[in-house]
Amino acid sequence: MNDILKALGYIDPAQLSYQEWLNIGMALKYEGCSVSDWDSWSRNDSRYHDGECIKKWESFNGSQKPVTGATIFSMARNNGYKFNSGHELDWNDEISVETEENNSCRQLITYLETLFELDENVGYVTETWEKDGKFMPSKGHFDRTAGQLIENLAKYNDIGAVFGDYNENAGAWIRFNPLDGKGIKNENVTKFRYTLVECDDMELSEQRRIIEEMKLPVACMVFSGKKSIHAIVHVNAQNYDEYRKRVEYIYSQCQKNGLHIDVANKNPSRLSRMPGVMRGGKLQELLAVNIGCKSFDEWKSLTETVNDELPDFENFGDVWDNMPDLAPPLIDGVLRQGHKMLIAGPSKAGKSFSLIELCIAISEGRKWLCWDCAKGKVLYVNLELDRASCLHRFKDVYNALRISPENIHNIDVWNLRGNSIPLDKLAPKLINRAKQKNYIAVVIDPIYKVITGDENSADQMANFCNQFDKICTELGTAVIYCHHHSKGSQSGKRTMDRASGSGVFARDPDALLDMSELPLKDSVIKQLENNAVCKICREYLEKINKLSEVSQDDMCSEVRMRDIVYKNISSAEWDMFLKEVEKARQEVQKRTAWRIDGTLREFAKFPPEKE
After folding, report:
1. Helix, coil or strand: residue 509
2. For the segment 104-128, what is each residue's pLDDT rounded down to a tens digit?
3. CA distance 265 to 263
4. CATH 3.40.50.80 is held by the domain 329-517
């Protein structure tokens, strides 16, 4: 009792919560102290009310899980109290020194106090059985609280007397997460606080060095008595799903830092080595408590800051005489392989048709508009058209351009209409699927389907555009995408200011091609109609072998060519001819004219291109 009251003197009631104050009272009553002991100690708190201790004392009638003196000893130790501390010797005192068993008990008490609340059930194993020369742990015990175990260890100073005798060749085990007292499986774990980090194929000093240099949030570090250190690491997860994710992160970081850990230790109900017991002539020793970062969140934040996976600095003097090769052009004079290009234009301007033409040009190694293209594999990410329309459009463009589909296997299409997701989630999936494909270009059409955040926010769009960089870097491919103009008139705006949203869209890509429609004058329409009709006339005359009799001047005049055709074909053929002429005139009326301006990072600016 004197030890209890001495320990009580190390606890300041003013620093306790109401429940902690009640726990002190219940523990004092359980240990046979008087209410006056509690009352006189409680007077040191400004919140003290006369008569309250007596009133509460009478309500303490015991429970199945009583609060014992272990609670007081635990609180006192946190404030510097040492159990059985030295005192002036009396003639009747026996001189003694701390035994190895006392030291072992202190280690185990410290371990329990560090990992558990006093009312939490602890799972442990001291009984073993042998299989193929190896000692295997039994199911063990799980129905006693940390407070009960700590109290008995302090009372008996004998691990075997408290936990049960164990085989000193085998050692003993303990579960580092609290249990519900009903079993030892994952579903019996009540708090997902810790995981086990263990490595047994490296020198002990090297294991400890890496653990400490990583600043892992280690609650307890225990020598297994053999080849490994057991680090009980803070996880502090809210549920099992979060626990698994956090443990995976811890394990992956350990592997990256060269710690070859045992991946079989991921479950929260796992056994670890119990400190303070012998194993094969060596002590399973508690090496340290509460080292490294204080919590998982603090450690993760530190880890992500240190392990930023950014490239190292380069000294320019080291590369002056050995400059790296520039990436070869993908679109000659416009875009290099591995770079980014944006095509901007008004809605329904034919941007998708233009991108499909580009895919075909790359796959076949032909010109796109007026520029030569490198030949290679290309992925077209279709976010807008249904699958059938998209595939038909590719074939229609092939036919309209009169290109022989000799390399159509160079084109892959990823139809995502109805399945589009934000680009920050789409990019990793795209990268994973495309890693072994060796694409030299990935075309994303259109990007408004995958924009994350506010397109008028510069910082949010900078983060969005970073996803294109990620695709370029990890796949070694060019990324080409299209975006629409902002609303309203674009006249008077610079080319790079026409795309909708933040100016980041224009400044981020290595090449920006902007499409703007040109008005067609009546004289131009008339000339186009003349050319179309003359072409039909030449085809008719060629069929009847009369074209060689027509002069060059006649071939440029619709009126004269029509007269020549009329004189050389039947009336039935003339009716058919007129229908074709009318169809050609209607096609001319549908035509539009466009100008393409370029803003380029790697190449000289080209004069506006008209189509």
Report:
1. coil
2. 899 999 999 999 999 999 999 999 9
3. 5
4. no
